[in-house]
């Protein structure tokens, strides 16, 4: 056996399945040697925005806590997500060309193009003058079908870096037109942030380029791959920023991230293969807001999308590559809190029944309008306390004196800001509330802290991100490397050329 | 080629070196096939106590920041440690039998014996009645030499789990006697916490069991493996808890963790192989105290010890296994801070020139004795401000108003506690200061926060820990698994049996 073939075979064995099933995989390889020597034919690239080890493991510890109290001796205290069960584990640095703590545009460009760029740039060089080739474009050029899915607006930084080239992520209108001109086969998830503009209506351009726009869930689920239509799909009603609702708030008739992924697989599956990027984009937003319930549920929704890829993998084990990663950590989430020391009660996070955003939209905005609050000496009333108990599981009278002080202070700040009688936020108030509704972010802080989770920031952090992989060529994703190397590794698996 | 051999060979190729050097390694394997088919002969087990991805990557970002300002476009913003350059990367869950957030005894027992136990138990079942066999004992039984090195006291939980069996980690006297009776060949690092007790003087027992006790650095460095002496070595002067000094404070005539490791290799190297555990124990203590400078320097010192193992590996590449991991995260360290948002200036951490402990011992304790402070209206004086500037790089007049308020409040708390005029710490004060000197922990918080690092706890957290590995059998260390599996994997690499 030649050394080269021997090496490839050894990598394939390691990656096509867990080590326990090596024998089966070898048998498959023996029957279809060509599948193991060429490029990965079906490539899934899952990006959890703002998701690193803390986000993943908080979800895993939370799931375990719902089944068994953590204090029960012998009970499992972590329940693996589908992504964590992938056989290969690596770790990526995330920094941008011009900043240690990255943003989604620079991180996405690195992960899509294998090139560092500056903060805010969409798949161009740091000056914003020269476009970089993306993995999705390389796949399309090779003849593969291409799909892009996100739970935030489809013109947001992470999806955009795969099809657009703009010097600034804020150029949503131009990015929308890049989408219309991309020739890609499927876009699913959120909507467009700037439809009207100098370049003309984005939706008109999308339609003019042959896309069918679908916003009804039943129509979406009935989409037939046989028609060969290119599709742009999003939910009939969108949340702020043209994104999907947070998973914890998602109505029945809204398409989930897993459903966007599953339908994408049906639409893209073809003899020449496909490349599909799926972003869990609101994990990041929930972490910016320091809302663990929303972040965990969006992480679980993202993991359900990964499971759809695994279901496909099981039908095409020798030809499929699945890579799951994050673009950066967000919020500085930690699985502990000074006040709770060594104890945790993650199951109590479930008592929060909606996202911070939904609490504001469905209750607190209206409450502020009708409240009789006039100054800082007015305390929270029973209406508010009752709503807080049902929405966050926090019983006011069971809070510590200090927690009551924190909550009343935040309440006063929210009310004063609503009344227009508040100074702009002080340094201390920014640390307490970031740019969020003071009462609401204090509520999620209390829920999270009481359960044994905490946050240190309303921004991203510099923690590396895990890379979990399975399937064709996956062994190359182990080890510790840079996010630009991640794109290069995927390019090698696909046998396409990127930018250097 | 039979399937079994094929699989073993494939793992060996992946692990003996990085993929780029596969060809060389294969050639070595061809000349010495027995080395690639038997057990790992030289096994290094490095445990960074309280060290997970945040601790490692903070050190890496710090090193890069000393060379280039993070804002310089194109400059590398992370500099790999030796441990991060190992070719295999995995991740471990850490939870104890009876708690999600583990402690060093339960984590160490899992990592040494492959068995979960309760918090505080040293290599016994959760009830503290049945001892578990440890990797080090199994190695000794096989005829390998065994060394145990730690930067904290040698009877502390993490070193103890390899040679002792006690129902409580606090039984230092009994653990010391377990050490004396272990028959292991080398103990290096910190001293003993309870020499006198019911079982007789621990040092006498150590000597009676044939150990040479060495506390002088020159004598230590001159130790000759040819004499065959069993050795217990520690520094002539120890810090609190019989530990080594923090690396940032270490005097020239104190033996470093790397020197303990290098000498250990010399003493243990023999034809029947060795097993050596090296703990970076004060990473944890620095993180409990929320002191990033001390934590980073101890992480770097730990990495220098890893480098000693790599130097040995390069002489014995086909027979050596190096595994580097942590037992749990500590402090809830994050690489970002709400107040600094997306900016970082890790190079400023270098302006802190000593540990929190050294600041207290060499300055603040005496300052409090002679201070004229009488009540909360007394502000910090120039003597204190000058010392803070030279020790922490914090210029009082350059602090924000809110930071000055934080510092003055902490100063008052420290002085009032010293004067005996303070109430016990309130919930809020515990969140601010933990159990640490109020002024000093506020100073490290300010240094860390200004640089773009923060902490959420004075305790451990539940973040998984990375496992980095190189050498014989290292492929099995990739993926995401439990800390009990880590011990089992090492046992398989050594071809020894553990407890199930």
* Total helical segments of chain A: 19
Q: Give the end-to-end Cα distance of chain A, rounded to a whole number of Å.
A: 32 Å
Computed structural class of chain A = alpha/beta
Biggest sheet: strand arrangement of chain A = 5-6-4-3-7-1-8-11-2-12
What multimeric state do the chains show? Answer: homodimer
Mean pLDDT of chain A: 93
Tell me which protein chains meet in the greatest interface and how many residues each side has.
A-B, 87 and 88 residues
- Poorly predicted residue ranges of chain A: 1-14, 16-36
Q: Main beta sheet of chain A, described?
A: 10 strands, mixed
**Portion in beta strands of chain A:** 5-15%
Helix share, percent of chain A? 40-55%
Compute the CA-based radius of gyration of chain A: 23 Å
Shape of chain A: globular
Overall strand count of chain A = 12
What does this structure look like?
Two copies of one chain form a homodimer. The first copy, chain A, is α/β, with parallel strands linked by helices and 500 residues long. Helix content of chain A is 42%, strand content 12%. Chain A has 19 helices and twelve strands. Chain A has a ten-stranded mixed beta sheet with strand order 5-6-4-3-7-1-8-11-2-12, sandwiched between helices. In chain A, strand 5 (211-214), helix 10 and strand 6 form a beta-alpha-beta unit. In chain A, helix 4 (53-67) packs across helix 13 and helix 16 packs antiparallel against helix 18. The longest helix of chain A has 24 residues, at 292-315. Chain A is globular. The model of chain A is unreliable at 1-14 and 16-36 (pLDDT under 50). The interface between A and B is large, with 87 and 88 residues.
